[in-house]
Amino acid sequence: MIRRPSSFLTIVIAVFVIFYLYYFANQFNTPSSLLPSSVTDASLQKKPPPLGAQPDTNPKDRYITVTATVSSVTTKTTFSDSGVDSNVQSVAPLPADYFPSDDDLDQDATWCETRYGPTYLQTIAKNARPFCKPESQSQFDCLHSNMYGESRKDSLCIAQNVVFEDLRFNIDCELRNSREPDLMGYPHPNNFQSYWYETGPRIIMTQFTNIGSEAAPLFEKHACSNPATPRDDGYKILIKREGGRNYWHSLMEILSFYFTIDALQMSINKKTGKPYMSPADTSKIQVIVLDKHDNKNYFELWNYFSPKPVLTLDEYVKDPSTKPCISNVIIPLPGASNPLWQGDWDPRICDNSIIVSTIRRRILKHLKISTARDLHSPINLTFIDRKGSRKLTNSKELTDALIAAYPKVNVKVVDMADLTLKEQISLVVNTDVLVGVHGAGHTHAFFLPPQSSLVEILPADLKHKGFRNLAGLRGIRYFSDHAPMAPSDRPDTSRDWHAEDVVFDKDAFMKLMEAAIQSVAHRGFLDSDRLNSCFGSSYGQVNRTQDVLL
Questions:
Q1: Which alpha helices (H) appear in 267-338, and where do they start and end?
Q2: Is the pLDDT of residue 326 over 50?
Q3: pLDDT band for position 456 (50/70/90)?
Q4: pLDDT tens digits for 426-444?
């Protein structure tokens, strides 16, 4: 068969077809050898989307955008010249089962969520009510809590356009009738809840404010209704403390103050259509302490939101920068309203709290306390050795036995009263087992690290569950036992556990410590079956029932 030579036209067509196929092959599959050197094989692989719920940003298209990096969820993937819409989103939301509905929560879970979850703050923010008649020169709005199974409603208030004179904050607000439809079911300023130690909005309003039309002349006197008049555009926080000496009581007051500011950033002012406070506004906060307690304990936590100094009322009066016309005055939730007080005499099964975790993180960051630690390091045990009331009279005998029995454990015996607050917390964040007689020192359960244990020695017959419940919210282990009061000439019927010393059986103490220490034997990278070298689980026989189950 004779092969004819290819014509010029045939050759041209063949070359065109080869070029065409090569061009489109490279459009969709560029060999890595032809890519710039900055592009690696790893960068060509799509990284997985971040775990967790993703925002439903487009109600018309429930698909979301996932980026090529884990740290962001906003970058869209594009394909050059491919005809693919760069706005097409690539990952659907997590299945609905990942987001339990209210119907999935039992009564205990609902009880916990309305106190220790975001629902607590959201409910307060939603329950804002204006209490002034329209003709008032001031605005006075209050926000209220509403917790599952709790009839009491706690209140916080914000007054806007206020005059300060003669040690009082004057609010020109003619109060609305409590029977008006939107106010029914909410506490009225004339009938707010009362709290112990003469604290809370009701006492502050009675002793340190004037509210009503009688305040109107002061607005004229100081020209506070004139926008041109210089005014303090910050946020004055009026605090009346329970005493300022007890760590637990003080922290409850401080946390209630934090909750107040959080709620005001969430709640919408019906008059402006905007939140009562913005994040930027928090830098304008200044705390004014109204009580006469002669201490400034924990002031470093009161000024978390703002660098402005915490002032007593006397200091505020004498401050040359004080102006009579004030834009905002806040009366916060009192410490006694704090949900962490609730159920402290009953065991609760609340096993986590976003609120508690957030507060812990805030305080550690504010005090510049690092939580970084060597997870290979030996176990640290801190024994709180009280020197005032409720001493453990045989503490030296017990701690000596503990140190001898556990040479691999770093045991520190400390009196927290000798340390500053920052020093105390810095010690606790590196503690694996915190031990002590029932008292304010157990408040440090807030700051214990993950996988740690809390040990509480309670006076005989004391059934307090507050620190047990706090440990549950933190997800840390809890152990307890009861110790009898130390011998005394006075009859037991006349003795109060608050002030009485206790004595603890050595064998019972060592069994309690064994349980707590072994519970952290696998903290971090540790992998110890038994940490003690001096005795086994048979050390000491206890003839009475212990709270801790071994």
A1: 299-302, 313-318
A2: yes
A3: very high
A4: 999 999 999 999 999 999 9
DSSP 3-state of 103: helix
More confident residue, 20 or 488: 488
- For 515, list phi and psi in degrees, rounded to 5: -65, -45
- Burial classification of residue 103, based on how many CB atoms lie within 10 Å of its CB (0-12 exposed, 13-18 middle, 19 or more buried): exposed
34 vs 330, residue with greater confidence: 330
Most distant pair of Cα atoms in the chain: their distance = 132
Write the single-letter amino acid at 195. Y
Reduce the DSSP state of residue 485 to 3 states and report it.
strand
Domains assigned to the chain: 1-93 (no CATH), 130-339 (no CATH), 370-519 (3.40.50.360)
Place of tokens 């303090």: 232
User: Is 152 in contact with 114 (CB distance < 8 Å)?
Assistant: no
Listed ranges 53-57, 159-163, 244-248; the one with the highest mean pLDDT: 159-163
3-state secondary structure of 221: helix
Taking the CB of residue 195, how many other CB atoms lie within 10 A of it?
19
CA gap 452, 544 in Å, rounded: 27
Question: Would you state the structure tokens that stand for residue 351, as one six-digit string?
Answer: 């096993």
Using CA atoms, how far apart are residues 145 and 383, in angstroms rounded to an integer? 38
Specify burial of residue 424 (Cβ count, 10 A radius: 0-12, 13-18, 19+): buried
| Kind plus residue range of the DSSP H or E element containing 146 | none
475 Cβ contact list (under 8 Å, min separation 6): 351, 352, 450
The residue whose two tokens read 């050197």 is 37
Q: Give the residue-averaged pLDDT of 288-302.
A: 96
Which H helix or E strand runs over 424? helix 421-428
Q: Residues 529, 533, 536, CA angle at the centre, nearest 5°?
A: 70
Residues 6+ apart with CB under 8 A from 524: 375, 376, 377, 451
Name which residue leads in pLDDT, 92 or 355.
355
Fill in the amino acid letter for 467.
F
What's the pTM?
0.80
Angle between helices 354-366 and 107-116 (to 10 degrees): 30
What is the rounded distance in angstroms from the CA atom of residue 4 to the CA atom of residue 67? 58
Strands 433-437 and 453-459: parallel
Alpha-carbon gap, residue 412 to 389, rounded angstroms: 21
CB-CB contact of 433 with 455 (8 Å): yes
From the list 334, 291, 338, 336, the residue with the least C-alpha distance to 310 is 291
Residue 500 · residue 388 · CB < 8 Å: no
Among the ranges given (455-459, 500-504, 511-515), the one the predictor scored with the smallest mean pLDDT? 500-504
